[in-house]
Specification:
Blueprint lengths: L2 E6 L2 E6 L5 H30 L4 H8 L2 H34 L5 H13 L2 H12 L6 H6 L8 H27 L2 H8 L4 H30 L2 H7 L9 H10 L3 H38 L1
C-alpha cells in the first residue's frame, strides 16, 4: 500500500494514501472477479465444453482434417514471417525514436500507432485497392504473373500491418527510460555499433522484446478482419485458423468449429502463461539490479 508523509506541528506522521473502507475494496474486487468470470472465464470454458461435447474422436477428427491442417500450417507460416519482420522494424523504430532527435519523429510515432486506430477490415480493403486486379498495381502484377490478393502474400501483408505496433510500442518507452548513457560510454570506449547493440542495448530490452514478440505472435495467429478481406476464403489454400472456424460455423458444423477454436483458445492460454513468466523474470532482474 502506498503511503505519504506529512509534517504537522513539528511532528511527522504517516498517512495511508488510500483510506477506503474494507467493504469498498472488497466490493470492487468482487465486481472485477464477477466481470472476469462472466465475460472471460465462462466463454473460455464453454469453447472447450462444446469442442469435446461429442467426444474426443470427433474432436481429433476435426483438428486433423486436411482443411484444418492446411489452416494450421498457413497460420503458423504467416506468423513465422510477420513476427520477425515486426521484430526488426520494432527494434529499428524504437532505437531511432528513443536514442535520436530528428525531424518527423512525432509523425513516425503516429504512423506506428495507425493500425490501432484503423479497422482491420479497412486495412484489408486498402491492400485490395493497391494490389487487387482492379487496383493501382493490379494490371502490372497480372502482366508479370504475380498474385498478392487472394494469395499468401496478401495475407502476410495484412497481418504485418495489423501487428506493427506491438513490438515497437513495447520497446519505445523502455528504451526512453533507459536513456543513452550506457551506449555513449560503450562508444567512447571503442565499441562498434553492433557491439554496443548486442552487449549493451539488447540485454537491457530482452524481456520487453520477448513480451512484444509474444503479443505480436498471438495477434498474428488470431487476426480475422484484414485477413478475411484479402484471403478469398479458399479452402486448403488461403484459410487461416480464424477463417476456418467461421466457415465451419456457417456450415452448422458446430463441433468442428469449436474444436478448431479451442486451438486458438489454447494459444491464448499459452500466451498468457508466457506473459506472466516474462513479467516475473523482469521483476526478478530489476530486483537484482536494485540490490547491486
Amino acid at each position: 500500500m502506498t503511503t505519504m508523509t506529512f509534517p504537522v506541528s513539528g511532528t511527522t506522521f504517516r498517512q495511508r494514501a488510500t483510506q477506503e473502507p474494507a467493504w469498498v475494496r472488497r466490493s470492487l474486487i468482487g465486481l472485477a472477479l464477477v466481470f472476469l468470470t462472466l465475460f472471460l472465464f465462462v466463454p473460455l470454458i464453454s469453447v472447450f465444453y462444446e469442442a469435446f461435447k461429442k467426444g474426443a474422436e470427433v474432436y481429433f477428427a476435426a483438428i486433423t482434417d486436411s482443411d484444418a491442417v492446411s489452416a494450421i500450417k498457413l497460420t503458423l507460416t504467416v506468423a513465422a514471417i510477420a513476427v520477425p519482420l515486426n521484430l526488426v522494424f520494432g527494434i529499428a523504430a524504437a532505437w531511432a525514436i528513443a536514442k535520436f532527435e530528428f525531424r518527423g519523429k512525432n509523425l513516425l510515432i503516429t504512423l506506428i500507432d495507425l493500425p490501432f486506430s484503423v479497422s482491420p477490415v479497412v486495412s484489408g480493403l486498402i491492400y485490395v485497392l493497391v494490389f487487387g486486379l482492379q487496383g493501382w498495381l493490379g494490371p502490372w502484377l497480372a502482366e508479370h504473373d504475380i498474385k498478392i490478393i487472394f494469395a499468401v502474400p496478401g495475407i502476410v501483408l495484412a497481418t504485418v500491418f495489423v501487428t506493427v505496433p506491438f513490438i515497437a510500442r513495447e520497446l519505445i518507452p523502455l528504451m526512453q527510460a533507459q536513456g543513452t548513457e550506457e551506449e555513449e560510454a560503450a562508444v567512447v570506449l571503442g565499441a562498434s555499433g553492433w557491439q554496443t547493440f548486442y552487449q549493451i542495448t539488447l540485454p537491457n530490452i530482452k524481456w520487453g522484446l520477448l513480451y512484444g514478440a509474444i503479443l505480436c505472435n498471438a495477434r498474428a495467429m488470431g487476426e480475422f478482419g484484414a485477413v478475411s478481406v484479402v484471403s478469398g476464403h479458399i479452402r486448403g489454400n488461403t484459410n487461416t485458423l480464424p477463417l476456418h472456424v467461421e466457415i465451419l460455423y456457417n456450415e452448422y458444423n458446430f463441433a468442428a468449429a469449436f474444436a478448431v477454436a479451442s486451438l486458438l483458445a489454447l494459444l491464448a492460454l499459452v500466451t498468457l502463461a508466457l506473459k506472466t513468466l516474462i513479467e516475473f523474470r523482469n521483476k526478478q532482474t530489476q530486483k537484482q539490479r536494485g540490490e547491486e
